[in-house]
Amino acid sequence: MATLEQKLQDMLQGAVEDAGCQLWGIECQRSGRFMTVRIFIDKDGGVTVDDCADVSRDVSAILDVEDPIADKYNLEVSSPGLDRPLFTLAQYARYIGETINVHLRIPVADRRKWQGKLEKIDNDMLTLLVDDKEQVLVFGNIQKGNLVAKF
Question: Of 33, 41, 116, 151, which cross-links 130 as Cys (Cβ 3.0–4.6 Å)?
């Protein structure tokens, strides 16, 4: 069964691309009686406020017609930012050599939170360099991951 994020991704991909952007990812978070639906968009040269407004307007129209979310929700459209969340294995592969944070569903070596340099990806296995030691993590066990911003 597809998750709500996957259903929304399939439903909204075309509209985001028609606006000249790439659908980077979608997060759905419940907060009390409301849900927040965050849509991250990206494009060459960076995302502008106008891009976010255009995508928000187009996506809102689709969500109003299709009505895939049973609860009340707030829609947010933004760029992924410097500490961009990573959703797909291809996105992780783009940042080999960079420092990332990951939160695991199931602990590895008694830890759920890991930060390290992404060394390589082999099939669905990510190798992080953590404190000069390699740690191999299964992509499917990653609940949330993001790039660590450099300043």
Answer: 116
* pTM across the whole model: 0.89
pLDDT over threshold 90, residue 31 = no
Q: Which two tokens stand for residue 57?
A: 């307007």
Residue with tokens 């709500």: 4
**Cα–Cα dist 103/141, whole Å:** 9
Run of H or E residues at 128:
strand 125-130
- Tell me, what's the pLDDT at 2? 64
Q: Which domains does the chain have, with CATH numbers?
A: 4-78 (3.30.300.70), 85-147 (2.30.30.180)
CA dist., res. 61 & res. 83, Å (int):
29
Given a contact cutoff of 8 angstroms between Cβ atoms, the answer to whether 119 and 132 are in contact is no
3-state DSSP assignment of residue 59: helix
What size, in residues, is the chain? 151
Q: Where are the beta strands (DSSP E) in 32-82?
A: 34-42, 73-78
Taking the C-alpha atoms of residue 9 and residue 13, their distance in angstroms, rounded to an integer, is: 6
